[in-house]
Amino acid sequence: MKAIIVDDEKHVREGLMLLADWSRFGIDTIMEAVDGNEAIKLIQEHRPEIIFTDMSMPKRDGISLLKWIHSSDLPSKTIVVSGYDDFDYMRNAICYKSFDYILKPIDPDILNETLEKAVNEWNQQSSPGESQQEHNVEMNVIQQIEQFLLENYNKDINLQEIADRFYLSREYISRKFKQEYQATITDFITNIRMNRAKELLLNPKLRIYEIAFQVGYQDEKYFSKVFKKTEGISPNEYRSTNLQ
């Protein structure tokens, strides 16, 4: 986790660096900026989760920085640190969704209590988003595997080949695929093959061994056995029933 301290006074930046218990809250990178312009460059590049900012600074002040952060729709938690108990400053801090407003001189207990709350809130808000993103990635991979099977069902496909192709473990693919489709990959392929076989059986010109070969079986007898097991009747019986 990253944080940035924006203040034109060096002793204030150093004070915050010393007083905050950064490591306890999982913050391992702390940056410094002397004004809003420098802060924006660092924020754009590093996207820190926590932003401490003064309000009264040269070039670009805290109000302008808060406005930019708010308009940029950044998920960062912004904590204002000001030497002024000023209504206008506080109003702008509230308006631009600042997490809290701390007065100088800085009280270490208040600082760390505020920082802890900000970090906890950031974690709570980001976790669902990360989980959803992870789920989306997983679903995308599973859908790619499904498409691969639909395009290659008539080939001799095994789980190891799929694992190698998609750079995933066989166990992971099996588990995720079954969760999504309520079927093993073997059953899924068999289902595709049987559906295609039923379509081909409606063509009286095709022999059973030709259909077996087209849907991925080298052995006509084995094909007929699998067909009967899944459909309840033999390929010839299916053909006779549906071509009457």
Characterization of this structure:
The chain has 244 residues and is α/β, with parallel strands linked by helices. The chain folds into two domains: 2-126, 3-Layer(aba) Sandwich (Rossmann fold); 141-243, Homeodomain-like (Arc Repressor Mutant, subunit A, Orthogonal Bundle), CATH 1.10.10.60. It contains eleven helices and five strands, in the order βαβαβαβαβααααααα. It has helices at residues 10-19, 36-46, 62-71, 87-95, 108-152, 159-166, 170-181, 185-201, 208-214, 220-231, 235-242; strands at residues 2-6, 29-33, 50-53, 77-82, 100-103. A five-stranded parallel beta sheet has the order 2-1-3-4-5, sandwiched between helices. α2 packs parallel to α3 (62-71). The model has no long low-confidence stretch (mean pLDDT 89).
Give me the secondary-structure topology:
Elements: E1 2-6, H1 10-19, E2 29-33, H2 36-46, E3 50-53, H3 62-71, E4 77-82, H4 87-95, E5 100-103, H5 108-152, H6 159-166, H7 170-181, H8 185-201, H9 208-214, H10 220-231, H11 235-242
Parallel strand pairs: 1-2, 1-3, 3-4, 4-5
